[in-house]
Write a structure and sequence with these properties.
Elements lengths: L22 H27 L9 H4 L18 H16 L15 H9 L3 H18 L6 H6 L5 H17 L2
Length: 177
C-alpha cells in the first residue's frame, strides 16, 4: 500500500505555491537561483583550475595596430630635455608604429633607435644621452642586453620595447636629465 500525503494549504510560514506567483516574481526567483548556481560553478572552476599556471593577457599584445594621433593625444611633456625626448619617441612609436629589423619600415613604423633619432632632430648630444638612459632602463630588467637595436630586434611585438622607453623617460626625469 502506497501512502500519500495531502498537500498542505499555504500558511503565513509556508512557501506560496508556484501557480500563485506572478510572472515577474517567478522570473526574479529563477534569476536568483541561476545566480547562485553560476556563483557555485565559478567557485568550483577556480578550485579545479587553481593548480594551472597562467600568464596575464595584455591588451597591447592583442591590439598591434598603431593608434591614430587623435585617439592618443601627446601626454604632458617632461620638463627635462632627455626625458622629453624619450617621451616624444614613445609617443612617436604609439602613433606611427613600431618595427624591428630597420630604423624605418615601408609603412613608416620605427624602431626604438629610429624614434629617438627622429625626435632628437639632429642634436647628437641629446640623442646619445637619450640612448644611454634607455640602455640603463633596459639593463635594469634585461641584464644581458648589449645595445638598443639588438634589444629592439629581439622582440616580435613592441609591448616590452615601448614599456622600456616609457620607463626610461621616467628615469631621465628622476635624474633631472
Amino acid at each position: 500500500m502506497l501512502l500519500t500525503h495531502a498537500p498542505l494549504p499555504p500558511t503565513a510560514t509556508s512557501p506560496v505555491s508556484h501557480s500563485e506567483l506572478s510572472l515577474e516574481a517567478r522570473l526574479a526567483a529563477t534569476d536568483a537561483a541561476m545566480t547562485i548556481r553560476l556563483e557555485e560553478a565559478a567557485v568550483a572552476h577556480e578550485v579545479r583550475t587553481a593548480h594551472i599556471p597562467t600568464e596575464p593577457v595584455y591588451l597591447e599584445n592583442v591590439i598591434t595596430l598603431p593608434l591614430t594621433p587623435t585617439l592618443t593625444p601627446p601626454p604632458a611633456h617632461y620638463p627635462t630635455p632627455v626625458a622629453a625626448l624619450l617621451q616624444r619617441a614613445h609617443h612617436q612609436l604609439l602613433t606611427g608604429g613600431w618595427c624591428t629589423g630597420a630604423q624605418v619600415d615601408a609603412e613608416g613604423a620605427r624602431c626604438l633607435y629610429g624614434a629617438i633619432h627622429l625626435e632628437a632632430r639632429g642634436d647628437q648630444s641629446l640623442e646619445s644621452r637619450g640612448l644611454e638612459v634607455l640602455m640603463d632602463a633596459i639593463r635594469r630588467k634585461f641584464s644581458d642586453a648589449d645595445s638598443v637595436p639588438s634589444f629592439n630586434d629581439s622582440f616580435a611585438s613592441g609591448r616590452i620595447p615601448l614599456q622600456m622607453l616609457d620607463q626610461a623617460a621616467g628615469l631621465a626625469d628622476s635624474r633631472g636629465l
